[in-house]
Design goal:
Elements (H helix, E strand, L loop, with lengths): L2 E2 L4 H22 L4 H20 L5 E2 L3 H19 L4 E2 L5 E2 L7 H11 L3 H18 L3 H12 L4 H8 L4 H27 L1
Antiparallel strand pairs: 1-2, 3-4
Helix pairs in contact: 1-2, 2-3, 5-8, 6-8, 7-8
Amino acid sequence: MAKEIPLHDKELNSFIAGEKGKVLSFLRNRYSVSDDDLEDIFQEASMALFRNIRGGKLTKLTSSLGSYFMSICNNQALKFIGKQKKEISFDDGKKLNNANAVRDEKVDELYNICIDTEAEDRIVRKHMLVNQIIASMTETCKDILLGYYWHDYSTSTIASLFGLKDANSVKAQKYKCVQKFRNKFNELINKIYG
């Protein structure tokens, strides 16, 4: 069922101010960025919400405004992280950035030198498989599974963070997401080994 969007600036400002602590806490736990950068990300997300509503892109919601805003914040954080230029400093003061970064095959070669046991290789493959499956899931499933299994959030905290009804609805949704994860896992394992 679609919900009406508040159209008054005062209501939106109040909503955004009320979400700030929750959003910053979520982003701080999920991403490794400075508090100043988190503030910038939050500001960009707030402006995006205003633009979406004022521009007519968003007129009705099928989820809560909190969930919608949290997804904007998450997307803004991912954009920010993608744009960051990572630099590696060497002892002589020279810097290496993404423009002249080490080629992927050389990174793999260096990486493989460090991993010399089959057990470590299995762990890496396991993590890659789990991450691949999580990445292919819906945003709701990603949020629930990452919140529950990676961040050890309670189901009531997850409900609050992502605008879900309550802890029981999170439990029911988590069960469905785990089933989807299990099915995708079995499908990939059959492709790899079957």
